[in-house]
Amino acid sequence: MIVLPGRVVGASAAAAALFGHDPPRTPQGHMMQSALQVLKAGQVFDGVQARGPGMVMIENGLLRDVDFTGAAPPEYATVTDFGADAWLLPGLVDAHVHLCWDASMDAVDHVTNDDPGTILDTARTAAAAALRTGVTTVRDLGDRDYLALALRDQVPPTQRPEIVASGPPITTLGGHCHFLGGEAEGSDALLAAVRERAERGCDVVKVMAGGGSMTPGSNPLHQQYGSADLRLIVEEAHRLGLTTAAHVHAADTIGDVIDAGFDTIEHFTFMTPDGAGLRDDLLDRVVKQRIFVSLTLGEAPGTPTPPPAIAARIEALIGVFTKVIASGARIVVGTDSGIGPSKPHDVFPSALVQLAELGMPTFDVLRSATTEGAEAVGLAGRKGVLRPGADADVLVLGSSPVADLSALTDLRAVYRAGHRLPGN
Ligand SMILES: [Zn+2]
C-alpha cells in the first residue's frame, strides 16, 4: 500500500473515499491506533427495513456510517464480523419503565419508604438489567425524588440505557401514585409542577389523568383532572420544550386526554366497570392525529397475576389491544417494568413477542421498538435507527427476529454508546 500525506491509496482507497475518512496519523505520518470500529453481519435491520448484508462503522460513540455496498472496511478499522446468520439492529426503546421500583410484591412500600440511596441502588440494578436485554433507551414515567435523573447524572452511559425521565408523575392529592411526591391541584400548583420538572432537567411531563390499580383507594375508572387542567399542563410543558404522557384507563378520560394534546397515551385500556370496551370514535381520532399509543405489555413467565383490576379484564383487554393494533394507530411498547413480580426490568423482549401474538407483523413490531419508540420519547434520529450521526447503540442477534421474535433473546452483543457490554 502506498501512503501519501493525509491519504490512503491501495486496497482500501475505495472504502476511504466512500466513508470520507482518513486514518488518524502521527506528525511523522504513521497510522495511529484507530478508534474506528466496524461491525459486520449477514443482515442489517436499520430501524425501518431489512437491508441485507452490511456493516456499521462506529467512532466516538456515534455511527459514522452504515454501508450496504459490500465495500471493504478501511484497513485501519477494528473489524468484528458476526457472520452470515447474524443480524444488526438498533438498540430497543422501552417507552414506559419505573427504574426506582424493585419489581417485588412490596414495590410500592419500597419506593415509598426506602431512603434515596437504597432506591438509587435499585435503579442502578434495574437500568443494568434492561441494558443487558438490549434496551438501550428507556423512558422513566414515575420515579421518586427525581432519582431517575440522579441515576442519569451519576452512572456512565455505558452502564445504563439512555434515560428519558418524567420525575414524579403529577397527580391529585392522595391520587394515583401520590406516594411518589407529585401531588398538585389547581392551575397555579399545576403550572408550578410543570416548571419545576423543566428546571430539574426532566424531558417529559407525566400526568395521572385517571386513577390506577397500584394505589390503595385509587380506581382506574375515576378521572383525576378535568379537561381544562389537562390542557393547561400540556400547553405549559410544550411551551417549555417537554413532551407529555398521560396515564389513563377509562374511555371518557381518554377523550379528554386526546383533546388536551398529549404526545403519548399510556395504557389505553378503555376499561369499563365490568370489563373493557373500545370506543371507535376515540380510536379514529388517535389514528388520524397520529398520537402515540403506549401499550402496556410484557410479563415474566410463571409469575403471579397482574393487579386485580387488570387480571379480571384480561380477555376484554386482549380484545381492545387487538383492535387497536389492527387500526393502524402508532403503537409503542411500554412494559411498566418494576411495578411488581410479573414486571422485572428484563421483561421487554416478552412484550414484543406479545405484541406479535396480538396481531402485529414482526417488521412492525421491530419498528415499534426502534424508530417509532425513539420518536415517541423525543429522540427521533438519535435513537432507534442505524444511520450516520445516530448514537452507536447497536444489537447483534444470532438469528432473524423477523422470522421469530424470540431471536431477541439470542443476543450476541450489545453496544451502548459505541462500547460493547462485557459478558455479551
Ligand atoms: Zn407506569
Account of the protein in words:
The protein is of the alpha/beta class and 424 residues long. 30% of the residues lie in helices and 22% in strands. It is built from twelve helices and 20 strands. The strands form five sheets. Strands 12, 13, 14, 15, 16 and 17 form a six-stranded mixed sheet that branches. Strands 4-8-18-19-20 form a five-stranded mixed sheet, with no helix packed on it. A four-stranded mixed sheet has the order 6-5-3-7, with no helix packed on it. The longest helix is centred in the first third of the chain and has 17 residues, at 116-132. It is globular and about 70 Å long. Mean pLDDT is 92; it is low at 1-21. The structure holds zinc ion (ZN). The site of zinc ion has 5 residues, from loops.
Q: How would you name the CATH homologous superfamily of the largest domain?
A: Metal-dependent hydrolases
Q: What is the C-alpha radius of gyration, as a whole number of Å?
A: 23 Å
Give the CATH class of the largest domain. Answer: Alpha Beta
Class based on secondary structure composition and strand pairing: alpha/beta
What is this structure's SSE topology?
Layout: E1 2-4, E2 7-9, H1 13-19, E3 37-41, E4 43-44, E5 54-59, E6 62-67, E7 78-81, E8 87-90, E9 92-97, H2 107-113, H3 116-132, E10 135-140, H4 147-154, E11 162-165, H5 187-200, E12 204-208, H6 227-239, E13 243-250, H7 251-260, E14 264-272, E15 275-276, H8 280-288, E16 292-296, H9 308-311, H10 314-326, E17 330-334, H11 348-357, H12 362-376, E18 394-397, E19 411-416, E20 419-420
Parallel strand pairs: 3-7, 4-8, 9-10, 10-11, 12-13, 13-14, 14-16, 16-17
Antiparallel strand pairs: 1-2, 3-5, 5-6, 8-18, 14-15, 18-19, 19-20
Helix pairs in contact: 3-4, 5-6, 6-7, 11-12
